[in-house]
Amino acid sequence: MPTKDEVFESVQAALVDALGVDEDEVSPEATLVGDLGAESIDFLDIVFRLEKAFDMKIPRGELFPEDVFTNAEYVQDGKLTPTGMEELKKRMPFADLSSFEENPVVQDFANLLTVADMCRFVETKLEVAD
């Protein structure tokens, strides 16, 4: 069972490899898209690298639930509905969605995921203790 520091180091290495960024750029508060320049195609590579690093399977849509943002039941006028926000919170308990909840514009969502969110996701999957 890895420690939280070991999880961060492995997530950091995966992001450095996937995104071609410097290690010092991958801080816990760095956003994947805004700060590290991740694009949608990069998320497949990130998932692959996390699966390999932690010897686990990440089902499609578990880490990045794109289907929530394309479901008409959850999106109206380019924003998540309250029902959509609840679904997103349920599917992403590892992510801090508080700032997104204030103005849930679908297009802005990718700019919110941080390295810390990725670490919390892995910790949850691996049941890493505090």
Key traits:
single chain, 130 residues, mainly alpha, Non-ribosomal Peptide Synthetase Peptidyl Carrier Protein, Chain A, 2 domains, two-stranded antiparallel sheet, 2 strands
Describe this entry's structure for a reader.
With 130 residues, the protein is mainly alpha-helical. The protein folds into two domains: 1-63 and 113-130, ACP-like (Non-ribosomal Peptide Synthetase Peptidyl Carrier Protein, Chain A, Orthogonal Bundle), CATH 1.10.1200; 65-108, no CATH class. It is built from six helices and two strands; from the N terminus they run αααββααα. It has helices spanning 4-19, 40-54, 66-70, 82-91, 98-102, 115-126; strands spanning 75-76, 79-80. The chain has a two-stranded antiparallel ribbon with strand order 1-2. The mean pLDDT is 93.
What is the gist of this entry?
With 130 residues, this protein is mainly α.
Please outline the major beta sheet.
2 strands, antiparallel
**CATH level-3 fold name of the largest domain:** Non-ribosomal Peptide Synthetase Peptidyl Carrier Protein, Chain A
DSSP E strands, number: 2
**pLDDT below 50 for ≥5 consecutive residues: which ranges?**
none
Work out the count of structural domains. Answer: 2
What overall form do the CA principal axes indicate?
Answer: globular
User: What is the helix fraction of residues, given as a range?
Assistant: 40-55%
* Mean pLDDT metric: 93
The first-level CATH class of the largest domain is given as: Mainly Alpha
Fraction in beta strands:
under 5%
Q: Tell me the strand order in the biggest sheet.
A: 1-2
Tell me the distance between the termini: 12 Å
H/E topology pattern: HHHEEHHH
The named CATH superfamily of the largest domain = ACP-like
Architecture of the largest domain, CATH level 2?
A: Orthogonal Bundle
Radius of gyration from the alpha-carbon trace, in angstroms: 15 Å
